[in-house]
Write a structure and sequence with these properties.
The chain is about 40% helix and about 15% strand. By secondary structure, the protein is an alpha+beta fold.
């Protein structure tokens, strides 16, 4: 598996919980050099059922910006539907009206919504001819979302959602 960043590795593991349903317990075990390049290793034992989790990701040679999942290429680990679902989860934590978000929670809201935007920007990396093609959806959750709402994976609709989130982040101040 080729990963573009540690943030992408963490999101991938979030989408792969323990077999018992608990949150994946894998944590970073560091980066080591192999014949394939640099490899990030994550491991952990589930406190609920004792299942041992181990993930190894070959790191992409392209170093992404600090606050991104990856560079210009689309993910090889996470499908566009999963990025869209993660964006939905983050955005659902907050009302669409900045005035309804308490001042004490605005920093957390900005952080969540900024990553919700980044998730949608990742979806956009899969665009071909103004839409994400069906064959880009490689996870079951992503395929289910695409079948239910194929229109949300068109560039105009995706752009409108990104812009709405950007306006909300701007209204929250910095």
């Amino acid at each position: 598996m080729i990963a573009r960043s540690s943030r992408e590795c963490l999101l991938y593991m979030q989408f792969h919980p323990c077999v018992c349903g608990a949150k994946n317990p894998a944590a970073s075990q560091g980066v080591h050099s192999t014949a394939d390049g640099l490899v990030a290793r994550y491991a952990g034992t589930c406190p609920r059922c004792g299942h041992v989790h181990t993930f190894e990701f070959v790191l992409d040679a392209e170093t992404p910006p600090f606050d991104a999942y990856g560079g210009a290429r689309p993910s090889q680990l996470i499908c566009p539907g999963q990025f869209a679902l993660h964006s939905d989860q983050l955005a659902a934590r907050w009302p669409a009206d900045a005035a309804a978000i308490p001042v004490s929670k605005r920093g957390a809201a900005r952080e969540d919504l900024s990553w919700a935007i980044r998730d949608l920007e990742e979806v956009a990396k899969f665009f071909r001819d103004g839409a994400v093609p069906e064959d880009a959806f490689t996870s079951e959750a992503g395929r289910v979302l695409y079948r239910a709402q194929p229109g949300r994976f068109r560039s105009a609709r995706m752009g409108a959602r990104i812009e709405a989130y950007r306006r909300l982040v701007a209204a929250l101040g910095g």
